[in-house]
Write a structure and sequence with these properties.
Chain lengths: ~325, ~325
């Protein structure tokens, strides 16, 4: 529950994942929500072979709820019950298209952090003009950052991209106002100094706003304030284009015709800018596997979140993060 | 000099401005650069009636020069000589498509600040889906900001938009990660507290990355680190679209045809996203009128910079800023 189209899109997404996995992977689905509603919708939709259980969680944390307060007051919400279920070992991952802040805070508070991680973070893939997307980290979890956080974001992002996209030595850039080492605010200057000598990632230096979509780096590191604004601005581009075209189209019959002719082409070109293809963002750095989806997640997006969760588990991303960051902190302690 | 196509685009732009002003406004142009070169190009191009003088400035601060060092070492550069000429009262405004950092630092150091201004700032218009552009301030002048700077950016931006676009009570928003008052990093939270009670601007609260292009506000205030990244990301969008279309087009003959058919429409639709139409950004808060152009400024962009400079002078924007900010500082002192 909590997503804009819950529980239907969640159920349909799980069914899509079940179908995709058929014959290759066995996944048990656990649905949290008002039990009666879920059982009714599931029995009407789920294939007979699909294995699932339902856990009653009658409360819903809405998009309007203040995360910290809601986590305290709504103990029987899908988010609190689901994350606790995961923490207690009854589930290998937790997925939600609900209130992002609540999932993030809940994940951090209830699951705790991986050893060596100062702050869990949310990373998001951006489309690029190249063949691979670019991971921007952090996109809103930490609005005030210390240089060390940014350093850790780089290490976590690098491991994630390496394991999920199969890029051998992901290029990690620091989002900044210029390419030169001397550029940036105090945070960026200090983070640069930490990152430049790191053996835990392939740091390629500063990268600018215009480089994100161009795919200049595989991982772009920034504080969550900047990253969140960048994410929302980037997401708005497609919408702006749509409005501009509609506007233009409405001005004359000829305009209408020429826009109509280009729509199929535009659709195909811009498909790669469709965020639902990326299916949710990981909460990196927590002791668990948490995938956060957009409130408007379609069944396809939910399906992709399930696939992503299995990848994060199978490729032991959390263990790799712990190995990388706890060894760094150890060597810091020795030095 | 200093612009990518100097001095030709500068000269052609001045000629365009002269033609546009013909019969309504008399402007004396002063060109700074290698005297012989300028005289040659000008005598070959300028209409007989156009009034201009040439001031010899044989040195050029290039795009690669470090601004502070270049300002010290190149006293005979077009930027240093031009700004000094303006400071000494021989010119009413200074315009350059050269090294932005050098023009900004030179403007601040040589002209000084308007009374009541803590930090001069650079503001830039963004296209919107509405009828008016949105002014984002700061877009790179101040990468580390105090809350008070953001407050002043709001006041200066508001006056600028009011005078240049004729919007009576411009809506000023604070760029943030959410609309609620409780959202944001430390800087945004403190700036919000300062701005919310201000009588010097129409503060409408927090605004998000997605709202910029939607024209939700007339002025969007942020620190120069965030603003610079937002500006460069936004500018890259058209380029990304171009590359995507080219890519798609190259895949088959049918694709090529359908892209070719849509190009004229796309051009017209996206014309409004063409940054050269806005013709340069003002360095707000200095004791003078300084307009900074993109290095790639076309003659049209240069012409628009000249028009903009005359507007800033005629509408007494600096005096209005001084009145607004010095009175605030006074009332703070009294209170």
């Amino acid at each position: 529950m909590g997503g804009d189209f819950a529980p239907l899109n969640e159920i349909e997404g799980a069914i899509l994942a079940f179908r995709q996995f058929a014959g290759t992977k066995e996944v048990d689905f656990i649905f949290f929500g008002p039990e009666e509603l879920l059982r009714k919708e599931l029995s009407a939709r789920a294939p007979k072979e699909m294995r699932y259980t339902v856990v009653d969680a009658p409360e819903v944390i809405t998009m309007k709820d203040e995360p910290a307060a809601a986590l305290r007051s709504k103990k029987n919400s899908t988010i609190v019950r689901g994350i606790n279920y995961h923490r207690d070992g009854h589930a290998d991952a937790f997925l939600s298209a609900g209130n992002t802040g609540a999932v993030m805070s809940g994940g951090t508070l209830l699951l705790g952090r991986i050893r060596g991680v100062s702050r869990p973070t949310i990373a998001s893939f951006f489309p690029t003009t190249g063949t691979q997307p670019c991971l921007v980290v952090d996109v809103g979890a930490n609005v005030d950052c210390k240089p060390k956080f940014l350093y850790e974001f780089g290490v976590m992002g690098s491991i994630y991209v390496n394991q999920i996209l199969g890029i051998r030595s992901p290029k990690v850039g620091l989002l900044n106002v210029g390419e030169e080492e001397s550029k940036g605010n105090t945070l960026a200057l200090e983070a640069f100094a930490l990152m430049r000598t790191s053996a835990a990632m392939n740091f390629v230096g500063n990268t600018e706003g215009r480089d994100i979509f161009m795919g200049a780096c595989d991982v772009v590191v920034c504080d969550g304030f900047t990253g969140n604004i960048v994410l929302k601005l980037a997401e708005s581009f497609i919408n702006v284009l749509r409005i501009k075209l509609k506007d233009f189209s409405s001005r004359s019959f000829f305009n209408k015709l020429s826009v109509a002719l280009m729509i199929p082409t535009m659709r195909r070109v811009l498909k790669e800018f469709d965020y639902q293809e990326y299916g949710g963002v990981p909460l990196l750095g927590v002791n668990g596997v948490v995938i956060i989806g957009h409130g408007k997640s379609s069944p396809l997006a939910i399906k992709n979140m399930v696939v992503r969760a299995t990848e994060v588990i199978e490729r032991q991303i959390n263990k790799r993060i712990e190995d990388a960051l706890s060894s760094i902190n150890q060597s810091e302690g020795e030095g």
